[in-house]
UniProtKB/TrEMBL annotation:
Organism lineage string: Bacteria, Pseudomonadati, Pseudomonadota, Alphaproteobacteria, Hyphomicrobiales
Binding site for substrate: 11-13, 174, 213, 234-235
EC primary class: isomerase
PROSITE patterns: TIM_1, TIM_2
Protein name: Triosephosphate isomerase
Active-site feature positions: 98, 168
GO molecular function: triose-phosphate isomerase activity
Length: 250
């Protein structure tokens, strides 16, 4: 397989107030000093920081994304944010179907598919998250669970927009534990096969991100695994210097 330009995406989750914008500024400086970074770099701050973060990122290659969007373009959905609102605030991407949303907000793969379709309709690139729980892995059903999530969480068509799927085993998120490299390679090959069967060339070009306790010390090994085309990074994306070490490992 030809090398796909990796995407290194940071997910700040529900962390950060104005002071955290300094991390955006620092990351911009680090990227500027480094010059030739052969990856796309994205930070997804909380919605309250989106607009200021995208202003701070201006003039650099750093892109800004949302962490979730509603499936509808507007309307009576108190507290929710639409895809076009994220775009308007300066986002280029949006994470959908993160396991914390699936668990905390009861999002099903059908919900996630509707959100991804809304993102595409608004002109955002969705990053669609999938991943098995520890019980599912121990029961030997990880392939089947992730296969079904991929099947039902992805819209019918992506048009010209790249397909991005993040494999995030739930038990590896924020725990410091990661699957073995063989297990990551196996799951990513499985997802690639499903995407190629369904989307053809677009499936071959799909970016398959790994997420779950990626940190500077394990990033290089994970990122050179076949069919791993980038990372979705939680905790280690909060500090620009840590995140930058992961970026240079790609
Ligand atoms: C995430 O939540 O997307 C994630 C991968 O978190 P962490 O890197 O902290 O495990």
């Amino acid at each position: 397989q030809e090398r796909l330009r990796p995407l290194i995406a940071g997910n700040w989750k529900m962390n950060g107030t104005s002071a955290a914008l300094e991390q955006i500024a620092r990351l911009k400086t680090l990227l500027g000093e480094a010059g030739n970074i052969d990856s796309d770099v994205l930070v997804c701050p909380p919605a309250t920081l989106l607009e200021r973060a995208s202003q701070r990122a201006q003039g650099s290659a750093l892109r800004i994304g949302g962490q979730d969007c509603h499936a509808n373009p507007s309307g009576a959905h108190t507290g929710d944010v639409s895809a076009s609102m994220l775009l308007d605030a300066g986002a280029s991407h949006v994470i959908v179907g993160h396991s914390e949303r699936r668990a905390d907000h009861g999002e099903t793969s059908e919900t996630v598919r509707a959100k991804a379709a809304a993102a595409l309709a608004a002109g955002l690139v969705p990053i669609i998250c999938v991943g098995e729980t520890e019980a599912e892995r121990l029961a030997g059903t990880a392939n089947q669970v992730v296969g079904e999530q991929v099947k039902f969480s992805l819209p019918e068509t992506f048009g010209e927009t790249p397909i991005i799927v993040a494999y995030e085993p739930v038990w590896a998120i924020g725990t410091g534990r990661t699957p073995t490299i063989d297990d990551i390679a196996q799951m990513h090959a499985h997802m690639r096969q499903l995407l190629v069967a369904r989307f053809g060339k677009a499936g071959e070009a799909a970016l398959l991100l790994y997420g779950g306790s990626v940190k500077p010390s394990n990033a290089e090994e994970i990122l050179r695994t076949p069919n791993v085309n980038g990372a979705l990074v939680g905790g280690a994306s909060l500090l620009a210097d840590d995140f930058f070490s992961i970026i240079v490992a790609a």
